[in-house]
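AlpA family phage regulatory protein structure dump, as promised
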Amino acid sequence: MTSNPRADAQPNATTPTAGALPSPQNPDIALWRLPTVLAHVPVSRSHWWAGVAEGRYPAPVKLSKRCVAWRSADIRALIASF
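structure tokens r here:
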């Protein structure tokens, strides 16, 4: 009976798992999707979008046709302003 060397191998810490993005070297340049933003700013989804439209909250960065995110530095600055 031969053992499978791959089964015994430890996962490489530098290899990200499938679908995971590596964390940026500088966390201020990270982009947060809406669920992450709302976890830090306790408002409803509709209140957030109304605030974005009125200029109370930062504008999103468009990643694709139907995908937006916010700069983490912008959200941290918003939290610090409260």
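The first helix runs from residue 5 to 8.
lmk if u need the other ones
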